[in-house]
Amino acid sequence: MSVVKINVTVAGKPDQLLDTVPEERIRAHSASIDRALATQGDNQSTEKTVCLFGAAPAALIYVIHRIAGKKETRDLHIKVHDMPLERVLAVWEATEVLDVRPAQPHIEGHVIGYISHHAITPEQMWVVAVASLHRRQSSKIFRTLIHQVAWNLVHQRYSEDGAQALQDKAKEWPDLHFTIDKKIIELKEKKAIHDSRALGHETATPSPTDE
Length: 211
Known about the structure:
Layout: E1 3-8, E2 16-22, H1 23-29, H2 31-38, E3 47-52, H3 57-68, H4 85-98, H5 105-117, H6 122-131, H7 140-154, H8 160-170, H9 174-204
Parallel strand pairs: 1-3
Antiparallel strand pairs: 1-2
């Protein structure tokens, strides 16, 4: 049985061996490795090598181990529900680097759900933004991040110090700060209209004690 040695390239460091896995299994569940091995032509050796980059080694190892340990009779499912947000994002990046098949949309959904239901910290905001950097025009995660951070600020879900820390962190990436500020202005306008309508309705509604 032929195997594949999977290395990872990290800037400024020698290539690191992540794992050696059966060729048939890794090619079935990683489209990027399948494509890389296809370019090697008629290589008939029982030990082949590919090199990956663009994701954390620990996250790549986790996903590769899930693939290597998969039971033949079950669909591949990368578990992330019990992980902290930062690790889920790392695994998400690893699945994209490996181009895992079948696709794992629940990972993106998990991140979006977390952002939508928590007042995330400045550090979490930064990790999410960096993970979405190269795909931010199309990323649902990035759009959710911008909307939810702005919404939390407009609706004062942070303490004064917490809000300032969040905005200070965003300023380290001027484009991120600009994008959040733009969304804050939009949401403030919507909130003002909503509040005005609610106030008008309250004024127009007679009290039960009115004669």
